[in-house]
Queue: 3 jobs
Job 1
Amino acid sequence: MKKPAHSIRDAARLSGVEESRIRFIERMFPENFPDTARGYAPRDLDRLREIDALIRQHGNNLSAVRADLRGRHPAAGRAPRVITVTSGKGGVGKTTVALNLSLAFARRGVRTLLFDADLGLANVHVLAGLSPRQTIVELLQGQATMDELIHEAPGGLKVICGGSGIGGLADLKMEFVRYLGREIRRMAETADLVVIDTAAGLTASVLHFISLADDVVVVATPNLASTLDAYSLIKVAQQERVPGRIRLLVNHAADEAQAAHVRDKILACARKFLAFEPEPLGFITRDPLIELSTQRREPYLLAHPDTDNADRFLLAADLLRAATPDPAAAAPALAAP
């Protein structure tokens, strides 16, 4: 007979790991705990003890913990790499960046899944030219599984579409958001890489999707409000000690000089006030063809593959691919509760 799963209170008592620390471990290592919403099995208790011990052993360096876990449990460590594309302000072209970066990865032969996590105002499907049968709405209503939400998109890309214009989606309970995070980490059979397109701003759900990432791509524009909000997002990410590398991509630049000005301003502020610099990921210039692609529901990289901006998307993807997934030596220590 199958043993009943334990509550979190029982899990804390049996594992010797405090409840707050259990929540922290689940949030940072969701791929190791796919079913704890229904309770904690004996295997979960063993993994909690192991990860808790590794966090202490590695001085809270979560990248080092992940590397150690992969060596011990290759199957459990085979979560897809996650890149989260985000911004402090709306209207900066974040979804355009996420879609075309994803297509650039797919063009390089990487099995790529784009997840639209802008849960209230999702529009990846519009830019990708899709008419989704099922979205996050059906998942929330229990009418579909996560696997059933995956749509084939042009360019060899797979897409999970969010809901758009539906009240309440943007304010989902964090339990469901954490469930989405665990499901993303479970996508190894479908994708080698998951690109998450978040909503703009600093909501709890956006911060959760940022915390899942191996790389966080912050999109900024020459607009002063966008520049300030991009810095604010970077600041909060540093304060939250997110484990992923933080990258900066400048969008809507008039030219390379303007992009460099925005980049240098943000890097200087981060260096002065945070003792940290995000890694530059390049820039995308203002281009009427991008707007035309949006209006025609044609992905820019596929419709205009021979443009300078297409080359810049490919270069940004190559820079992300060149980075090792687990920079344990360079990753900042993360303060666990």
Job 2
Amino acid sequence: MSEHRARKRFGQNFLHDPGTIRRILGAVDPRPGQHLVEIGPGRGALTEGLLEGAGALDVIELDRDLVGPLQQRLGGSGDLRVHNADALHFDLCGLVSPDQRLRLVGNLPYNISTPLLFRFLDQSGCIADLHLMLQKEVVDRICADPGNKTYGRLSVMVQTVCSTQRLFVIGPGAFSPAPKVDSAMLRLTPDDPPRYRLRDTALHARVVAAAFSQRRKTLRNSLSGLIDPQLIRAAGLDPAARAEQLGVDDFVSLANHAAAQGTRERL
């Protein structure tokens, strides 16, 4: 298993540091009866501990050359179900019944971490929590507060559906090959019930993306052609404000006012 070389096209950086592995497993704290799913198990650094803790585990691994060694080494440690698939297109909710929620753990490849994260958020209704290793810079952006220079589209979109917590930083030496940047462990807990009610999730995403597309512009300018200043005021916001000054609730209010206006116009 250790002979498998990391492949650039899969963005592989294999976790190997025993202290970091113990720390992550302690943060996840897998228990019997919980439905755990690991994204990108790689050589199985976390897989063994997750399987031992929960007794059963689904893993989603894109690299088919890692599937056989995983099954061979850990198949006898518990009920290990290996899915040779792309997590970007995998139906996580299909793994559980409608009344169940799963726990997601993963070391996400830097090159596709944001698309993967949005894919997971789309399925947040069946997820109890997520423990993810990401580039530290990405974790900082996800957890940022309004007014912070790292606060942006990713912060708003994640915080609209989840509470966020940066757990600890992981240095490059914990991985093989060592990445050129620090990583961090992130805990996301989807709101249950949802904290915010969106009339139109697609419109909300468009509003947030447009508002942050040119950070230095005011809302009046960045949202021009999408939302007029009068509607911005109706949502209780200043058209002269910039996106980084708005809280998550402000974006929800703005998008919901825009959706309601659109609904009225169609009647």
Job 3
Amino acid sequence: MPAETIAPTQPPITKKEILGWCMYDVADSAFTTVIVTALFAPYYAKIVVQDPGRADFLWGLAASISEVFVAILAPILGAIADFSGSRKKFLGICATTIILFTASLWFVGPGAVTLGLTLYIIANIGFAGGGVFIDSFLPGISNEQNVGKISGMKWAFGYTSGLICMVLISIVFGLADNIVSNPSAEQLSKARLIPVVVAVYYAIAVIPTFLFLRERSVPQQLPPGETYLTVGFKQLFHTLKNIGRYRELVKLLIAFLVYNDGVVTVIYFAALFATTTIGFTGEDIAMLFILMNVVAAIGAFSFGWIADRIGQKNTIYISLVIWIIAVVIAYLSYTKTTFYIAAVFVALGMGATQSVTRSLLALFTPKENAAEFFGFLGIAGKALAFLGPLVFGAISSATGSQRPAILSIGVFFVVGIILLSFVNEKAGKEAAKIPVLNQ
């Protein structure tokens, strides 16, 4: 009996449902753009920790802890979600976690290093876990002809949303400069509103997802004496025993494991590099990420369209070359203008790599096991995600410069290209037609 069944009586996929799926990224990107990358990271370094070297290490440590936690839990929770037909419920738990713990970052003021780290780790666990469950809906709402377009549309929506949230905070609320300067008590109070604004924005933007996105998986009846937890573990072990059937998917996950570490590291440290090494002000950071989100939105949609025509694998190759160019330019940057150029390449690579990788995984994934298999993507995305941030932090701390640290990240993209060359795209799509059955 399959781990889940797509009910034949369910209505066809509608544009409204696809919109609901895309809207989760509208909410999610407010968190990743403002909290993870652009504004809260410099706030934590300059105002909370007040020591750039230590802040780099702690920010990398926080990222690593949350990513490893999700990597451990994602596959088993995915297997449970598939069997119980409850992907949407798990997604709701993740969204609630993000909203509550992001808002709680309001309590983090100067010197609250441990509190800030703890709250951020929990919020980031919700963010990373939500990514696993929302992506698991993609195989069920797409096909080989439009998966790149749909995935690219979601990422484009997300980057546009990140831009809107940045504008809302940086211009309307005038908070950007208060993060990297010495704020007065009044300015500090305004700066601490950043996570609250993000939490409210997230809560509003995510509503269409839960209104329009259908739970198309059908819950199965628990066998006598079993719980969802025991069934989930058994299904996971059964899948691992039969994983050889999906060897192309495994190869893709290994390649993604490496090159995504480079992507994650650049995202985590972009704002810190810009402020510490290049000398960006809060206003510069706001303009930088407005530019990046515009370019990333265009890149995600464009490369999704390209992937449907030249193939996902070839498109990922192009995106990884763009990443290599980006880190080299960043290493050589001594002016704001040059770093803006590097940021354009980062944005193009970011928009393309993440959306197209997920569309290729969707084509390699049996619909009946989507949450479980995207849980493996969670492992691939998180298992080595601790390494890049720690390498960056360690090199930055040891050399007293972020330049060699950012250049070292290029190695992850080079190795990713080599590993991706072993993936047979056609064979992977054929294997996805056969679900992993329960024992």
